[in-house]
Amino acid sequence: MLSIEKIEALAPDQSSLAAARKLLKPAGWPTLAEDGAGLVWGECQGSGATPYRVALTEADAGYKCTCPSRKFPCKHALALMWMRVEATTPFAPGSPPDWVSDWLGRKRGPSAAAKPDADAPPKARPSVAALGEDAEADAPDPAAIARAAQQRDRNRAQREALIGEGVDALDRWIADQLERGLAGFDQRAQAECATLARRLVDAKAGGLANRVEQLPGLLFAIDEAHRGAVAAQQLATLHLLAAAWRRQDRLPAALRADLRQMIGWTIGRDALLADPLAVKAAGRWMVLATVEEVQPDRLRRIETWLARTGGDEESPPFAVLIDFVPVSTGSTGNAFAPGEVIDATLVFHPSPVPLRALIAAQTGGSMADEDWQPAAADLDAAWAGYQSALAQRPWLGEWPIAARDVTIRSAGGRLFAVGGTLALPLAPQDADSAAPLLDAGVIALFGLWDGQALRPKFAGTALGRWTA
C-alpha cells in the first residue's frame, strides 16, 4: 500500500518530489475521484487548455499520466499518491471513466479495479503448517516466468535490430553530407538533422537523435569560419559511436555500458543502485555550477556540477547530476546553489571515466565557509586528466577542467585561461561575464571544456567567489 516512504522510493529524484508538493492543492484538480476499492483518478490543470489525466491503483502503486514528462512517475502521479496518503483532500466516489478503464485493460500486474464481494466472508489467513499443497498452487508458475523472460528477450532483440537499422541510416547520412561537402552544411543542417533525428527516434536510438538535433544550434553558436571544422568533428564522433555500436561485444564492460547510454538505453534508479559496474562514492561535495538548456524535444536539461572536497581519494573527483523537466512547466528552480556543500553518497552511471551520477543518500547540506581548492596545481595537470579521460572514452563531450594558479588574460580579442604552459580559449559567449576575472589576479578556476573552448563557471579569488 501507499505510504510517504513508498512515494519517496518511487520518486525519480528530489526535484520531482518538490514539484509534486506544489500540486497538492485541490484547486488545481478539476476532478478527483475513486471507486472505493483502491482505484483513483484525477485531472490536473497544467499550462495548456486540456488538463492532464492521471490514474492510480493503490494496491501496487501502478500509475498513468498523459503529461509528456520523461520522468516516471511524473510529478502529477506523485502528487495524486501524496494526496491519498495525507487523506486531507476529498475524492468523489464514482465509476471509472472510459479512459481509466482502457488503461486498466492494458495494464499488466495487480489492479485494484475489481471490487471485492461485500457479502463474502473474510478469508482466514492460513498458517505455514496449514499451507500444504496449496503452497505449490500459490507459487509462481515457472512456465509463466519463462514466457515473460522470453518476451523480454524478444523485445530486447527487436530494439537491438531497430537501433542497428538506425545506426546504418546514420552512417549513410554522414556519407551523404561528406559527398555534398561541409562548406555549406551549416545552411542545410536544420532540415537535414531534423529528418535524421526523426528516423533515429523511430529506431529507438533517442540518445543519438538528441545529439543530431543539437548539432545545428551548436554550429550557429560559433563564428562561421570555424563551423566546417566543428561539423567535421561532430560527424566524426557520430560515426565513432555507430562503429562502436557494431563492435560493442569487443568493448570493455564499462565502456560498453557507457556506449549504450549514449545511444539511448536508459537505466532506472533501482537498477543503477544494484549495478555492479556502478561506482559508489560517499563524501563531501561542493556545488560549483548549475547549467540549464532547452533541448529541441522541449525538455529543459538541468545539470548540477559537483566537486569532491572530502572522502575517499580514489573516488571520482567530479560529478554531474542531470534532471529533465518539460518546458511547459515554466521556471523550475534548481535544488542546489553554487557554493553549497552536501554530505552525500553518489552512485555513478557505469563508464570508464565515471561522471554522471545521482544522489543515493544525503545527510546534510550548507553553504561552504571554506575556500574551494581544486586538486590540480595548474592547467597542465588538469589537461593531463582531460587527455586521460578522452583516451578512455573517445566520445567524451564536455569535461570539467579545474586548476589552481590560473589567470585570465586577453589577446587578439579573445580571453584565455592561462596556467603552467597552457592557454585555453574561453567561449566567446562567456567573454562579458568572465571579464571581471581579468583583474582578479591568480584564481582557482572551474569550467567545462568541449574540445574547442572553456566555459568558466566558478572561481575562487582573493575577493571571494565568482560564478557564471
What does it look like?
By secondary structure, the protein is of the alpha+beta class. The protein has four domains: 103 residues, no CATH class; 101 residues; 100 residues, OB fold (Dihydrolipoamide Acetyltransferase, E2P) (Beta Barrel); 89 residues. The chain is built from 14 helices and 16 strands. The strands form three sheets. It has a six-stranded antiparallel β-sheet with strand order 13-12-11-14-15-16, with helices on one face. Strands 4-3-2-1-5 form a five-stranded mixed β-sheet, with helices on one face. The two termini are 46 Å apart.
Q: What radius of gyration results from the CA coordinates? A: 26 Å
Distance between the termini: 46 Å
Strand content: 25-35%
For the largest beta sheet, what order do the strands appear in spatially? 13-12-11-14-15-16
- The helix/strand series, from N terminus to C terminus, equals HHEEEEHEHHHHHHHHHEEEEEHEEEHEEE
What's the helix and strand layout?
Layout: H1 4-10, H2 14-21, E1 31-34, E2 39-44, E3 52-57, E4 62-65, H3 75-86, E5 92-93, H4 98-106, H5 128-131, H6 134-138, H7 142-180, H8 185-202, H9 206-220, H10 227-246, H11 253-263, H12 269-274, E6 280-294, E7 299-311, E8 318-326, E9 340-348, E10 356-367, H13 379-392, E11 399-411, E12 414-419, E13 422-425, H14 431-434, E14 443-449, E15 454-461, E16 464-467
Helix pairs in contact: 2-3, 7-8, 7-10, 8-9, 9-10
